[in-house]
Amino acid sequence: MIVQLRAVSKSFGSRLAVDNLSLDVPAGICFGLLGPNGAGKTTALRMIYGVTRPSSGTVRVFGIDIARDPRAVRARLGVTLQQNVLIEALSPKENLRVFGRYHLLSEPELSRRIDEVIDFLELRSHAHLPVRQLSGGFQRRLAIALSLMNRPELLILDEPTTGLDPAVRLALWSRVRDLRAGGTTVLLTTHYMDEAQRLCDRVAIISGGKVIEQGAPANLIVSHLAPETVEFDCASGEEAALLSGLSLPLRRRLRVGRRVMIYLENAAPLIDHIRHRDQGDRRAMVARPTNLEDVFLALTGASLEGGQ
Amino acid sequence: MSVSLPHALSVWRRNASMYRRTWKWNILPNFFEPVLYLLSIGIGVGAYITEMSGTSYIAFLAPALVCVAAMNGASFEVTYNIFVRLTFEKAYDAMLTTPIEPDDVLAGEILWAVTRACIYGTCFYIVLAFFGLTPFPSSLLVFPLIPLAGLLFAAIGIVFSLKIPHIELFSFYYTLFLTPLFLFSDVFFPLKERLSEPWLWVAEALPLLHPVRLARAAFRGNFSPILLWDFAYLVGVSMLLLVWARRGVRQRLTN
Questions:
Q1: DSSP label at A21?
Q2: What does pTM read for this prediction?
Q3: By the 8 A CB rule, do A87 and A38 touch?
Q4: Do the Cβ atoms of A147 and B93 come within 8 Å?
C-alpha cells in the first residue's frame, strides 16, 4: 500500500473533522476522495503528508510512519494545494527553480527537470513571463508542475480543476492519466463527480469526516443505483399518481426540490409510461446513464423514500 | 526535528530570488532614511553642537545610525513580508509539502532577515566611510555586530508577526515601537546624561540601546565591561525570542 490510514481521527477543539477514517491506496492507481466542502478531505490529505497530526490512529505512506519521518515521506511525494502558491513576480521557470531547491535539487539536475516539467505541462510559451501575467489555467498547470519537480511516486491533488474552464480541465485530466500510466500513484480530492468518474480507479465518498462508501465508480453505480436514470420535474404531490400502475422495478427514486431522479435498468418503458400518463403534455425528461453524482446524492443527499 | 541547513538555505534562496528582482526599488528608500538623518541631524543640527560625549556630533551619531540601518533592514522583512507569505501567499504551506520542516522555515527566514540587515548596515557604513566617519581599523568591528543587531530585530519582529491577526497592526509596531526606539536609544543623545538613575535601569530594556552602545564603542575603539552586558542582551534576548518564535511557527503551520 502506498497510503494506509488506520482508524484516523482528527478534532479541532470540539469539532471532529475526520472521524475514524481508514483508507488504503494501492500503488499505481488514481484514487479519489469525494465529498462536499467541509467533509474533511483536505484535513485527510494534510495528515497524509504530515502537517496535520491525527488525534488518534496511524498514517503510513510508502510503509513509513509519517509521524516518525515526515521528511523521508515528503521527499517522495508531490502535493498541489487547493490554492495556487506561486511567486507572482517571478517567471514559471524561476518558480520551478525555487521549488526544486526545496527538494535540494541542484544543477544540472535542476535545469533538466525544469525543462521536463515545462514540456510535460506545456508551459514553454510563457516560461519567461512573470506569473502574475498568466491566465488561471496556466497558473494551475504551473502549480501542478511544481509538485512534479521531485519525480513523486505519489501525487496528491487537492481540488485540481476547481474554477478552470472545460478545455483546461480536459487537458489536465489527460496529464493525470499520463502520470498514472507512468507508474505514479495519484490521490485527488474533488467535489466534481464527473472528474472522479473519468479519472479514478477507486473512490472513497466522505461525508462528515467518515468514509461512507468506497469502490470502483462503475461498481458503486451498479450496487447502489442502476445503469440508467430518468430525470424530470414534478411536484411532490403529483408523483404518486404519475408513477401509479407502473409494472417496472424502480431501483431507487431521489428528489432534490422539484427534480425527481429515477434509477432503473432500462429507461425507455418508464418514459413511455409517463408520456401516457401526461396524455400528450410534453413534459421535459432526461434519460441518461447513471453517474457518480447520483451515487453521491443517494448516499448523502435527500432521498424520496425517507432514508430507505 | 532540528534545523536542516540545506533546507533552511533553500528558503533563504527563495527570498533572495525575489529580492534580486526588486532590490533596486526596495533598497533605495530604506537606505536613504539613515543618510537623510545623517545629513539633517548630523550635519545640519550638528553644526550647532560643539561636542557630544567627547566627540563631534556627527561622529556621535554615525555609528548609531549603522545599527538603525540594520534594524530597518531586518524589520521590514520579518513584518510585512513574512505576514504576507504566511497569511495571503501561503508560501509556507507549499514549503511544508516538501521535506522542509517548520524549523527550517524559521531558520531560513531569520537568516534572510539578517542578510538584509547586513546589506543595509554595510551600505550605510560605506556612506559613512565616504564622509570620513569610519575610524580605521576599530570601526570594522561593527561588521560582526550588524548581523547580531539584525538577528535581534528579526526575532522581535517575527514574534510580533506571528501573534497579530491583522496586517494593519504593523503600524503600531512601527510608530509605537521602532520609532520610539530610534528616538530614545542613545542614537541622538546620550541617555546617561539626560535620565535619572532609576530611569536608566528601565532604559536598559530597550533593544536598540545595546547595539548602539557596542557600535559606538567599536568606532571609538574604547571598551568597557558594560559592553559584555550589551553583548549578552543581544544574544540572550534573540535566543529567547527565537524559542518563542519556533513554537509560534509550528503552531501556525502545522496542527
A1: E
A2: 0.91
A3: no
A4: no
- pLDDT tens string, chain A, 308 residues long: the values are 999 999 999 999 999 999 999 999 999 999 999 987 788 899 999 999 999 999 999 999 999 999 999 999 999 999 999 999 999 999 999 999 999 999 999 999 999 999 999 999 999 999 999 999 999 999 999 999 999 999 999 999 999 998 889 999 999 999 999 999 999 999 999 888 889 999 999 999 998 888 999 999 999 999 999 999 999 998 888 888 888 888 777 788 888 888 999 999 999 999 989 888 888 778 899 999 999 888 988 887 644 343 33
Give the Cα separation of B208 and A158 in Å (integer): 46
φ, ψ at B150 (rounded to 5°): -60, -45
Interface size, chain A vs chain B, as Cβ–Cβ contacts under 8 Å: 80
Longest pairwise C-alpha distance within chain A: 75
Beta carbons of A71 and B101 less than 8 Å apart: yes
- Mutation to test the B interface, candidates A81, A101, A157, most B Cβ within 10 Å: A101
A67 contacts on B by Cβ (under 8 Å)? none
Which cell is B68 given? 538603525
**Do A175 and A144 form a contact (C-beta atoms < 8 A)?**
yes
- Rounded to a whole number of angstroms, the CA Rg of chain B reads 19
Strand order of the sheet with strand A56-61?
Answer: A15-25, A3-12, A56-61, A64-65
Taking CB atoms and an 8 Å limit, are A83 and B90 in contact across chains? yes
- Residue of chain B minimizing CA distance to A101: B10
At B53, give phi and psi (nearest 5°).
50, 40
Which of B4, B18, B100 is opposite residue A87, by nearest beta carbon? Answer: B18
**Residue located via cell numbers 404531490:** A237
Secondary structure (3-state) at A80: strand
> Rounded to a whole number, what is the distance in Å from the CA of B86 to chain A's nearest CA?
11
If residue B67 lies in a helix (H) or strand (E), which one and from where to where? helix B57-76
Give me the residue from A75, A83, A146 closest to B99, CB to CB: A75
From A52, which residue of chain B is nearest by alpha-carbon distance?
A: B255
